[in-house]
Amino acid sequence: MCGIVGYLGLNEKKEILLDGLQELEYRGYDSAGIAVIEGNTLHNFKAIGKLKNLREKTKNYATKGFGVSIGHTRWATHGKPTELNAHPHLGQYSYVVHNGIIENYQSLKEELQSKGVTFLSQTDTETIVHLFEANHTHNKNVFSAFEETIERLEGAYATLLITEADSDTIYFAKHGSPMLVGFHGDDVYFASSDTPIIGKATAVYYLDDGDYGYASKGKLHLFDANGAKAFTKQALTTDKISAQKDGYRFFMEKEIYEQSNVMTDTMMGRVLDDTIRLDELEKDFFKDITAIKICACGTSYHSALTSAYLFERIAKVRCDIEIASEFRYKEPLLTKDTLFITISQSGETADTLEALKMAKRAGLKSLSICNVDNSSIVRESDASILTRAGIEKGVASTKAFATQTMVLWILSLYIGQEKKTLSKETLETEINAMIHTPKALIVSDTLHEKLHRLSKRYLHGHGFFFIGRDIFFPLALEGALKLKEISYMHAEGYPAGEMKHGPIALADSELFTIALMPKTMHYDKIKSNVEELSARDATICAISPLPFDLADDFIQTHYDSHPMLEFFEMMVVTQLLALEISVRLGNDVDMPRNLAKSVTVE
Ligand code: F6R
To answer: Which architecture, in CATH terms, is 443-588?
Structure first.
C-alpha cells in the first residue's frame, strides 16, 4: 500500500529518494518522508499530503559524500495521515520505514511502554524502531539486535532500518510485502517495486519472504531462517517506462486511450488465425481439472465475474468466483480437481495473495492473471499469464480490466480447445471477434466530446444505477465502481432483472440509470427492465447500438455483432463518463481520495 525506497552510496541521496518515491506515489500519498545518515549526522524530513510538499520542504537540502538513506510514501493504515504518523519513524538514534502491518504491534508497544519507551505516533511501524533499540541496549551487536527484532514481528512487512550505531549500513527484512535490492557498482538500492530503480540500478535481486540482512560497503549480506543465503542477481531492464502523460490530462485518460493498442499486445502470439496458443501453460495443464475457482478484489473481481459466464458457456467448465477477502475466512471446501485462478493488476494485493497461499496449502493447482511480472502473486503461482497492459498509473483501473478480461476470454477458448468442448465454428467466431477488439476500443473524438457534454447533467442527484444482464452485469458493477472511485458519488451496479426486487423503490427523476443495452444479449429483456424504471420517472442514460425512445440521454455504440465487442465498446463509454464527471467536479482523477493503487494490507 505504501512505497519504500532506500539508497546506500556516494550519489546525492535526496534526489534519488524523492525520484523513487515519485514513482511509487500512486501506491499511497497521505504523507511522505526521508531520513539520511551522512557520517554521524542524521537528517529527517516529513510532510503530509503529496510528495510535492516534501520536495518543497527539502528544497534547500542536499547530501554530500557517502551516506545511507531511506524514504517512504504512506497510505494510512494505523493512525491518521499526520506528520507524526509519517515514516521514517525515529527512535533515539535509528530510523525505520515499513510497508504492511505488524499484527502484534499492540502487545509489543505495551511491553516497550512498560519499560519507559515513549511513542510519538499511532502507527504499528514505530514499534520496530523502539524494539530494535531496546534489543540493542542489551545486545551491542547491531545485526543481532535487528535479527532479534524481526523475530518478534508478526504480520506482513517489508522494512528498512538505518541507525547511528552503524552509520554506513542499511538493515532490511521482508515478509509478505514486496521488496527488492538493486545494484550498480558499489551503489545499493532498495525499493518496494522496480520502477524507482530503473535507470539507476543495473542488476536486481527480488527478496523472498523470510529474507533479511544488511547492505554495507556496496555488498548485500543476505540471510533467512537457515542462516546466510546465496543469491543471484538478475539484469534489470534499462527501458524506463515513461511516466509522461503523453499529452493527456490524466494518466487515467491516457490509459483509456491506450486500451486499443495494449489489447493487441495482450493477444499477440496467443490469438492465431484458427487456434489459441498459451505457451505459458504446460501441455496437460488442465488434465484432471474439472472446475475453476477465481479469487480477486475490486476491478479484478469484476473481470473474474465476467469470465465465469465465458468459462461455463464456452469452455463448459464449472466456475465459481469469490471476493478474496471473503474467501480467506469462510473455510471453503477445496478439491484438487479445481484450478485456482487469481487475478490481480499489481500482483501484490494482500487478500488475493493470501487466498492463493490458502489454495496452495490445500493442494490446488494455481494460475495467476497479472500485469506485473515477478510480483508476489506471479511468483507464488504454479503458472501465470501476464496481461501485458504496461504500467497502470491511474488509481482507477482501466486498461488492466480490459486486458484481464481479454486474457480470461482467451483462456476460456483455450480450455475449450484443450478439452475439446468447443466446436471449430465457435472457435472461429470467437477468434474473429477477438481480432476486432482493438478497433472496438478506439476512442473517437465524437464519443469523447459527447460524453464531455453529457457529463454536466450528472453532477447531482441521489445516485446512479448501472444495470446490465449476463456479462453486462459485471460491466455494470465495474462502471459503477469507476464512477464512485473518482466522482465520490454513490453508484451501484445491478443485474437489470433484479431492480424490481427492491431497488426500483428508489426510482425518481434524481435517480440516474445507466443502462447497458447490447443488441446481441437479451436486448428485449433489458429493454423491459429499463421501461419499468422509466415509468417511475428515473432518468435514463441508455448505451446501445439500437435507438431507444425512452432514453433521456442516448449514447449510440457501433459494434453489434458479438457480445464481447459490445462489452468492450460500452466499457470505454462508462470509463469516459466517469472521467468527465470527475473532471467537472474538480476531483483528482488519478489519485482519488482515500485510495491507493496497490492494496498490500488486509
Ligand atoms: C479499482 C481498482 C481496485 C483494484 C483492487 C485489486 O479501480 O483498481 O478495485 O482492482 O484493489 O487490485 P489488483 O488488481 O492489483 O489486485
So the answer is: 3-Layer(aba) Sandwich (3.40)
